[in-house]
Amino acid sequence: MRRFSILLLSALLIFAFTTVSMANPTIKGDFRYNIYKDETKDDENYAQSDLRVSIEDDLSDSLHVFAKFRVKNETDKDNGEMYADEYYVKYKESWGSIKAGHYGYKFTPSRVLLKSAEYHEFPSVDIMAATTFNTSVDGLTFDVLYQPYADDEEEEIGAGAYGLTADYNAGNWGAKISYADLAKPAAGSSSSSDADLLALDVYYKLDNGMKFFVNAVDYSANDKKYSRYGSKGIDGIDPVLGFQWKKVAGSKFDVSAEYAINPRFEDTDAEYNGLALGAKYQITKNTKLEFEHYVKSDDETKTMGRIRYKF
C-alpha cells in the first residue's frame, strides 16, 4: 500500500508536469559541499557533497505542483543514489489550501540550527495531507495535518497520526502553537499513552534584520518506550532561545545562535545544554560560504564549513 501510494502520487506529478500545454515549470538547483570535524565520530574529519534539484509549476490559479530530487555522497560511504526528497500537490482557494504529498512540517519554524533530529517537526512520511484554513483575522491561520498510515521505516509514527496548529503572523512578530499525536502504542502493549507533543514558537523582528525567538517542545506526556523521541534522550520540555541577524550592519554577513535552556540527554551520561552558532557570507548572488558550530556534549563538538551554490 505504501509503495503503491508513492508510485501513484509520483505518476500524478509527472502527468501534471508533462500534459498541461501551458505549463512552464521552474527548475532550480542547490549544491552544497560540506567539510566536517565531528568529535563524536571515530573518523572525525569527513566531507559531504549534496545536490538538490527542484521542479515546480502553477498548473492553474489554484493548483501548484512541486518535486525535489536529491543525491548526496559522504566520504567513505556508498550513498550516492538519487532519490525523491520531497514532492506534493497543493490546491488553493480563498478559504485556504490543501497540500498532499511527501514533505516535512515544522512545528518550530524559527529554529534552524538545533534541529534535534526531527524533534521540532512532523516527520516526513510517504503520504501526508495538510489543510490550511484562513480566517477573518489578518495573519491568523489554522492547519490540520494527517498521515493515514505508518511508514515501514518509521513504525513508531503509527497509522492515523495527526496534528493541529494555530499560526499568527503580524509581520514583525508572530506565534505558533501546535499539538501532534504521532503514534499509538505497539499492539498488545499495556500502555495507553500516545506519543504526542505540544510545541510553541514565538518571534520578534527588528527593522535592522535582527530576529529574537523562543520556542519549546513538550514531550512530558510521552511514554518513552513507544515514543520516537524518548529514545533520543530529551525528557520533558525542550525550550530553545534563538537570535538571527541578517546582513549585519548592512554587510554581506548573516549570524545566528541557538541555546537549549534545559539539559539534553537527561537519561544518559552525556548531560549538556545544546548550543549552536552559525555564520554566512554572501560571495555572489548565488554563492555563499557557511559555518556552523555545535556543542554536542560536555566535551565534544561538531564544526562544519560549507560552500553553497544555487542555480
UniProtKB/TrEMBL annotation:
Task: Please state every residue range assigned to the domain named Porin.
Answer: 12-295
Instruction: Name the SUPFAM superfamilies on file.
Output: Porins (SSF56935)
Signal peptide as annotated in the record: 1-23
| Name of the protein in question | Porin
GO cellular component, alphabetical, reads:
membrane
GO molecular function annotation: porin activity
Coiled-coil regions listed in the entry: none
UniProt keyword list: Signal
Q: Tell me which Gene3D superfamilies the record gives.
A: Porin
